[in-house]
């Protein structure tokens, strides 16, 4: 439901962008559909290249997931929106979405799970204004844990998608 | 390519050095004895050659193999009170008194050109009869191979099943964390000795699979930035990229005749099972489903593939004709069943079975559709049957690291193979070797 709505929004947005100039009008900014986090909306349309390192929202590059889940939790909508907005502003920006899983389950299956998560972030980013050609999904499955522990605190850090800019602008 | 194989070679040399510095890379502990094992005495073999005996203690290697199998209880060296080297020196009463069912004696002699000839004899103590007497020759440096072959022959003579000690195993190691992780694809003897680096990488390596002739490994490497499937010749070190499509390139598995490679590829949107003809490099799609279809393995007749799919929600094992068609679900017990390994003419399938946070190795008997759990850990995975079906290797997690276990097919006898450093996983037991 929410997704459909956002995709619809983004279609309108993309149409708007195509019709108008590079910097789109604020009202259709998809960040409006997310819970009230003001930062990305404030910055919408005004990102500078250096903001990737300094902007509080853009500096967040990891989306975490629940066990065996690939849905993006609402608390990451703001992060998705600001990155989508940045990518919309900088069409030459390229991003690799690195999907990861925790250690439970088999390695090949976890590659699939990591890819699904990467694709969930990909479609959310495209839905929020990034273009498909800017995004590339690579799944590492459980091969690259950030925490090698064997409990939920480690697992929850490892179930993630990392947003990696390969070209900033 | 040339430079790469040179580098691999250099790495192998380095590891050979490191390996010897750490004694042996893998060590064995028997963690659970078996009460039904057959008592057997392997008497230290006499060295009747010139100069020094070989580095390998042949009879001790034979003894260790038989003990590892769980089928034998071997007499400790301290309990051996007589040292016959040939039939004429054997006093059966002594071995009967020591409650031994079987006795192995032998001797090593020069065979010219630096080679040694190992003669050995196997006796049935109760019947006071010689069951077998054979000789195997080999270079002094190949005495471990000779010992494993002797253990195979003894095993087969007594149990009527071909031994699988003279085989090799492949596995993946990782050392370090984050960007500093070093991955290596390794090959070792079935007892963990003689570890050799096949490939070393700063990017993940996964899913080693043996060709049926034991000469090549297929595996997954991320060195190109995404998962790709490579084939590598173990004797020459030459390798080739066989699949690097967009998305996942994973789960390689050679067909029993070695002409085809099953794999899972996700360029179509989600991982599906494909089969590549290795001569033409053409792939055909075997499964078509929006679910995750991964980890295909061949049935021994080469007609079907067993794979993991979450099309019903959680991962379960399914079977599909290798030519394509409808898949049928095989596993209905347990929340999570994945990573199949097949043995015994397809009659048994082992898998990683998950319930809650606990993953263990289970063996499905297809005739009775009953499961037996054969591992006791919490994160046990990647089972791989020995080619004779008598044992399996699997990966377990102990404390901060991954270790390998070899377990008898009935789950009663386990031994741990531990790497001195880092994480060891994804064991793949190689095929029988050609004598």
Short structural summary:
The complex is a heterodimer of chains A (169) and B (435). Chain A is of the alpha+beta class.
Largest binding interface between chains: A-B, 25 and 41 residues
Tally of domains of chain B: 2
Outline the biggest β-sheet of chain B.
6 strands, mixed
Q: What is the level 1 CATH name of the largest domain in chain B?
A: Mainly Beta
CATH architecture of chain A: 2-Layer Sandwich
Number of H- or I-type helical stretches of chain A: 6
- The geometry of chain B reads as globular
Give me the secondary-structure category of chain A.
alpha+beta
At the fourth level of CATH, the homologous superfamily of the largest domain in chain B is TolB, C-terminal domain
Number of strands of chain A: 4
Largest beta-sheet details of chain A? 4 strands, mixed
The share of residues in helices of chain B is 10-25%
Mean pLDDT of chain B: 90
Q: Enumerate the spans of chain A where pLDDT stays under 50 for 5 or more consecutive residues.
A: 1-44
- CATH homologous superfamily classification of chain A: OmpA-like domain
Portion in strands of chain B: 35-45%
SSE series of chain A: HHHEHEHEHE
How would you describe what is shown here?
The complex is a heterodimer of chains A (169) and B (435). In chain A, helix 4 (77-89) packs across helix 5 (107-127). Chain A is an alpha+beta fold and 169 residues long. Chain A is elongated and about 40 Å long. Chain A has helices spanning 2-19, 38-43, 51-54, 77-89, 107-127, 152-158; strands at residues 62-64, 94-100, 135-141, 160-167. Chain A has one domain (2-44, 51-167): OmpA-like domain (60s Ribosomal Protein L30, Chain: A, 2-Layer Sandwich). In chain A, strand 2 (94-100), helix 5 (107-127) and strand 3 (135-141) form a beta-alpha-beta unit. A 4-stranded mixed sheet of chain A has the order 1-4-2-3. The longest helix of chain A has 21 residues, at 107-127. The model of chain A is unreliable at 1-44 (pLDDT under 50). Chain B is mostly beta strands and 435 residues long. Chain B folds into 2 domains: 31-159, Rossmann fold, CATH 3.40.50.10070; 168-429, TolB, C-terminal domain (Neuraminidase). In chain B, 12% of the residues lie in helices and 44% in strands. Chain B has 4 helices and 31 strands. Chain B has helices at 2-21, 58-68, 92-97, 143-159, and strands spanning 26-30, 38-42, 46-47, 72-74, 102-110, 115-124, 129-139, 168-175, 182-189, 196-201, 205-210, 216-221, 228-233, 239-243, 249-254, 260-265, 272-277, 283-285, 293-298, 304-309, 316-321, 328-329, 336-343, 348-355, 358-365, 370-373, 381-385, 391-398, 401-408, 414-419, 423-429. In chain B, strands 2, 3, 4, 5, 6 and 7 form a 6-stranded mixed sheet that branches. Chain B has a 5-stranded antiparallel sheet with strand order 1-30-29-28-27, with no helix packed on it. Residues 1-26 of chain B have low confidence and may be disordered. The chains are: A alpha+beta (169), B mainly beta (435). The A-B interface holds A 68, 103-109, 111-113, 115-116, 137-141, 143-146, 148-150 and B 177-178, 181, 204, 206-207, 222, 225-227, 247-248, 250-251, 264, 266, 270-271, 292, 294-295, 308, 310, 314-315, 336, 338-339, 352, 354, 357, 359, 378-379, 381-382, 397, 400, 423, 425-426.
């Amino acid at each position: 439901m929410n997704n459909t709505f956002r995709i619809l929004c983004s279609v309108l947005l993309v149409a708007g962008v195509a019709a108008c100039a590079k910097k789109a009008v604020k009202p259709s900014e998809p960040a409006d559909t997310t819970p009230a986090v003001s930062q990305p909306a404030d910055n919408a349309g005004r990102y500078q290249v250096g903001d990737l390192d300094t902007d509080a929202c853009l500096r967040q590059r990891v989306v975490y997931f629940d066990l065996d889940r690939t849905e993006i939790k609402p608390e990451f909508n703001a992060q998705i929106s600001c990155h989508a907005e940045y990518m919309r502003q900088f069409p030459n920006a390229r991003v690799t979405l690195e999907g990861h899983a925790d250690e439970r389950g088999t390695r090949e299956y976890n590659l699939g799970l990591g890819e699904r998560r990467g694709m969930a972030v990909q479609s959310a980013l495209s839905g929020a204004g990034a273009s498909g050609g800017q995004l590339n999904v690579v799944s590492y499955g459980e091969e690259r844990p950030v925490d090698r522990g064997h409990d939920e605190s480690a697992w929850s850090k490892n179930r993630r998608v990392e947003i990696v800019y390969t070209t900033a602008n | 390519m040339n430079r790469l194989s040179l580098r691999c070679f250099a790495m192998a040399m380095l590891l050979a050095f490191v390996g010897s510095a750490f004694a042996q890379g893998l060590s064995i502990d028997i963690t659970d004895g078996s009460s039904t094992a057959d008592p057997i005495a392997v008497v230290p073999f006499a060295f009747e050659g010139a100069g020094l005996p070989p580095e390998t203690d042949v009879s001790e290697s034979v003894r260790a193999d038989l003990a590892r199998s769980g089928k034998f209880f071997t007499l400790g060296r301290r309990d051996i009170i007589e040292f016959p080297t040939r039939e004429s020196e054997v006093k059966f009463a002594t071995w009967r008194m020591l409650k031994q069912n079987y006795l192995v004696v032998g001797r090593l002699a020069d065979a010219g050109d630096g080679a040694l000839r190992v003669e050995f004899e196997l006796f049935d103590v109760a019947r006071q009869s010689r069951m077998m007497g054979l000789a195997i020759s080999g270079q002094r440096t190949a005495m471990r191979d000779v010992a494993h072959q002797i253990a195979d022959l003894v095993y087969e003579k007594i149990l009527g099943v071909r031994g699988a000690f003279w085989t090799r195993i492949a596995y993946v190691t990782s050392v370090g964390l984050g960007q500093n992780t070093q991955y290596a694809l390794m090959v070792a003897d079935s007892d963990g000795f003689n570890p050799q680096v096949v490939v070393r990488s700063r990017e993940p390596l996964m899913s080693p699979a043996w060709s049926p002739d034991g000469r090549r490994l297929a595996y997954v490497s991320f060195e190109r930035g995404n998962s790709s499937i490579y084939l590598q010749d173990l004797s020459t070190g030459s390798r080739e990229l066989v699949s690097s499509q967009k998305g996942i390139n994973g789960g390689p598995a050679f067909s029993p005749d070695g002409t085809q490679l099953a794999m899972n590829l996700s360029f179509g949107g989600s991982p599906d099972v494909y089969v590549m003809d290795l001569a033409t490099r053409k792939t055909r799609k075997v499964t078509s489903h929006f679910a995750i279809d991964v980890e295909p393995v061949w049935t021994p007749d080469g007609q079907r593939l067993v794979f993991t799919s979450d099309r019903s929600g959680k991962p379960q094992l399914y079977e599909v004709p290798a030519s394509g068609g409808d898949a049928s679900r095989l596993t209905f017990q347990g929340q999570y069943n994945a990573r199949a390994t097949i043995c015994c003419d397809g009659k048994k399938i082992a898998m990683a079975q998950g319930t809650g946070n606990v993953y263990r190795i289970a063996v499905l008997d297809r005739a009775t559709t009953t499961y037996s759990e054969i591992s006791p850990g919490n994160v046990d995975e990647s089972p791989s049957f020995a080619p004779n079906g008598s044992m399996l290797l699997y990966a377990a997690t102990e404390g901060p690291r991954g270790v390998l276990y070899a377990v008898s097919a009935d789950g009663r006898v386990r031994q741990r193979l531990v790497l001195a450093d880092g994480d060891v996983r994804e064991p793949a037991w190689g095929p029988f070797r050609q004598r």
